[in-house]
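In this section we walk through a basic example: taking a raw amino acid sequence and producing a predicted 3D structure, encoded as discrete structure tokens. The instruction is simple. Fold the sequence below.
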Amino acid sequence: MADDKRTKMGTGPVPAQRAPVTPAPTAEPPKTEYATSYVPQTVVVDPLLGQTLAGRYKIVRKLGEGGMGAVYLATHQILEKQVALKILHGEFARKKDLVERFMQEAKAASRITHENVIDISDYGETPDGLVFFAMELLQGHDLHEEIARARLAGQLLPWSRSKKIFLQICAALSAAHGKGIIHRDLKPENVYLVDFLGDPDFVKLLDFGIAKLTEVAEGDRKLTRTGMLFGTPEYMSPEQARGEPHVEARVDVYAMGCILFQLITGRVPFEAENFMGVLSLHLTEAPPTIPAEVFDRIG
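The resulting token sequence is shown next.
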């Protein structure tokens, strides 16, 4: 019956005078189907899923992954509260300087008490060497996605929205600087927009992974080495681009200027084909002028 139906669908009605012919068996469709059915068996299962970390965080699923670590949805077993758990990749957990930098992110953010800064509630290391910290679970998307969405639609964000978002980032940054913390990697990807009390543009500032604690004694060990570049080139200040070891809060102010430019125009101030090309423009070129018609469009 199945073969007869397939023949009819492919060639139209079969003439009545022709005797039904049993087609030669073909294995091609089953082969395709069976091969596809075996694909899931090649998927590597994350060994952390379902595990309980540090005796209190049960890992539910992976939320995302970056160069140094992965973020998981986890449930605190005692408090029955969901958190975002950031775990340093195992290969980096054996490098003392990277562990220190990872833990500095938790320490820096936890020192800032402000509604627009993500809350870090716990951090530590497991007996088997996993380094982690727990932070509040956010539901929303980052500012980069919001700007990109508007740009793809051929639109610009209204100034009323951009101003509100920008001032919240400024408030978070002011709180950080008040604690002697320089973020050093401000960019739209590190600005999260969440829905809070009916406000869809409530800001949470994230990722203090390369923050500099200017008022905290770090002993004799320097986490920032001369000549090393930290940050994202599109938002990097000239002194960062030169690799200067001692940076001040002004690098964050410069990055905020780049973010404001992007909020208004939908583009970063300087674009080039590669990393060094962007840095060169920050070092040598004056900020581009925003056309008057852009201000008319955003209101």
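Looking at the output, two observations stand out. Residues 1-37, 215-228 have pLDDT under 50 and may be disordered. The two ends are 67 Å apart (CA to CA). In the next section we compare this with other chains.
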